[in-house]
Amino acid sequence: MDDMRDDVFGVWRVGWSGRLMGYVLAVGPACGALFAWLGVLSHPGAQSVGSAGTATAVALGFGLFAWWVLLRVRLELARDVIVMVNPWGTQRLPWSRVSAVSLGNWGAQFHTRDGFTYSAYALSGLASGARQDERFVDVLRTVDVQLHSGQPL
Known about the structure:
Helices cover 48% and strands 26% of the residues. It is an alpha+beta fold. The N and C termini lie close together (9 Å). The strands form 2 sheets. A 4-stranded antiparallel sheet has the order 1-2-3-4. Helix 1 (16-42) runs antiparallel to helix 2.
């Protein structure tokens, strides 16, 4: 691919609708907390400060949730390794272990020669609210080249 940088030749994230939801989940409560703190300026008092503090804690919780579950999730195809950043952890899978790839309910599934399956949640229809067939075709094309060439891209 033309946009290869640092040996990474493909990065896929949660679909646009999932990312939009993540930003709404992060920014909406943050705006509420900002307005609560602006209210403290016009009506200082312990109750106003307490409410603003609570709004800030809620905004932080929503922001961290949105980042962890939707905004940081990605699939990176690099020269030597596949990196799957999922909400439940990050897996690094060497190309030499991969035997096949398919699209499942939880995203792109990388099948290994020893029978294990690793899922990349970034291509999950559940994460974006839409089927990921079109995006999966790009991943599949890149994986096929890597698996069948016998040498790095």
